[in-house]
Amino acid sequence: MRVKRIITRNFAIGANCFLCIILLLYFYPLYYSAYLDWGLDVKQNKTKIMVHYRSNAEKVLRIAYLVSDLFVPYITIGILILCNAIIVVKLKSKYRWRQSVAVRNSNLDTKSAETSAREKKLALMLATVSTLFVVCLLPQSILMTCVSLVRELNLNGAYNDVTLLISSFTLLLENINCSINILVYYCMSTKYRKTFQACFFHALKPNNEIVTRTKAVP
């Protein structure tokens, strides 16, 4: 109920608009440092539209990479681990408190056991999702940190092929993280599973009900 009072419709709209502005500022240095213009392709001996970089592109991109690929990912992972640790500690403290209350009142023993089991499932689900997030996104953050610090790993560097090879695997891990969460929630959350089935299998229910009703009518 506290969450419903805090996250209202206006708050959700404002938060989404704020996140869009942050993302625009996040990508602004990347698009500011490059522009499209006519240029000569020496290999093909043709004049065509090519990507050109401004004179201060290296300084701008270096600062942008340090912020976007060093500070932001690691701070996000640190906050995620800290919040999950706080949630687990709080759930354990509540579990011990319910046990102490259940010992005094035998009528609350069953309800306390059900609530504790539900909270254990919740803690396990949060830990699983957070672990998948960290494992799948940390390699990409490490790679981009190395690219921002080691000049040879840049786009025009001597070891650019190594960067492209590793990035193909790290991007695959990011796609896996985006796709596997729905399976985790479906397998570990009963409420999510019921809501999912009600949304996607709702079209099958009316036909079944009609068939059963026609059979029941004499």
UniProtKB/TrEMBL annotation:
Keywords attached to this entry: G-protein coupled receptor, Membrane, Receptor, Transducer, Transmembrane, Transmembrane helix
Transmembrane segments: 12-31, 71-89, 122-142, 162-187
Membrane topology: Multi-pass membrane protein
GO molecular function annotation: G protein-coupled receptor activity
Location relative to the cell: Membrane
Residue ranges of domain G-protein coupled receptors family 1 profile in the record: 70-185
GO cellular component: plasma membrane
Keyword Membrane: yes
Principal location listed in the UniProt entry: membrane
InterPro entries the record matches: GPCR_Rhodpsn, GPCR_Rhodpsn_7TM
One Pfam family, short name: 7tm_1
PANTHER family linked: G-PROTEIN COUPLED RECEPTOR (PTHR24243), THYROTROPIN-RELEASING HORMONE RECEPTOR (PTHR24243:SF233)
Protein name, entry field: FMRFamide receptor
Source organism of the structure: Biomphalaria pfeifferi (Bloodfluke planorb)
